[in-house]
Amino acid sequence: MKLILITTPQYFVEEDQIITNLFDEGLDMLHLRKPDTASAYAERLLTLIPEKYRKRIVVHDHFYLKNEYKLKGIHLSHRNPIIPDNYTGHISASCHTLEEVEADKKNCDYVFLSPIFDSISKQGYHSAFTAETIREAARKGIIDKKVIALGGVDEDNILRVKDFGFGGAAIMGAIWNKFDPATDTNYQGLIDTFRRIRNLAD
Question: How many beta carbons lie within 10 A of that of residue 37, not counting itself?
């Protein structure tokens, strides 16, 4: 099962080291999502990540970075819903209903569906789907290998994501909550958590 990490909304000093370590540990893909931030910060972060890993990074903003840094692709959302003219390459998109999944996955390599569980990183952002709804959507072929579960995914429920028939899981709070850039100097706990999730996803 594919494992995707979404960045925190803010940049921080150790970010490139942590991301590189996570790629070393078997992270499949990184989604670079930093709403309302200048492209210069994204460029700086990308230059610090080894070139061999950049082809596994998808950007949510500043789509020109895809070609500039030979990245994996672009991600469409309500903030950036339009595919650039003459764009070729990987496309993913955010979906919040099963109807959006059906419509968008025809034109995407994969789509995120959220929130599957109560969000870890966004307080008050609760699951929008029952287990039965998800299983029924899987039976109908709406949820398949092109649909990635997002929202509240952690080591306690990732086996359920696998069981539901999703093609992968996108994680955020489960990993980043293990490290506070303001106070922590060691991110080994974050790496250990990722290893456990990776082992469960395999």
Answer: 14
pLDDT averaged over every residue in the chain: 95
pLDDT (tens digit, 9 = 90+) per residue, 40-94?
999 999 999 999 999 999 999 999 999 999 999 999 999 999 999 999 999 999 9
Using DSSP's 3-state secondary structure scheme, residue 110 falls into strand
Q: What is the DSSP letter of 102?
A: H
Which residue's entry shows tokens 């990308």? Answer: 46
CB 91 within 8 A of CB 83: yes
CA distance 195 to 197: 5
Which 8-state DSSP code applies to residue 155? T
- CA-nearest of 105, 55, 54 to 76 is 105
Angle at 182 between CA 49 and CA 52, to 5 degrees: 10
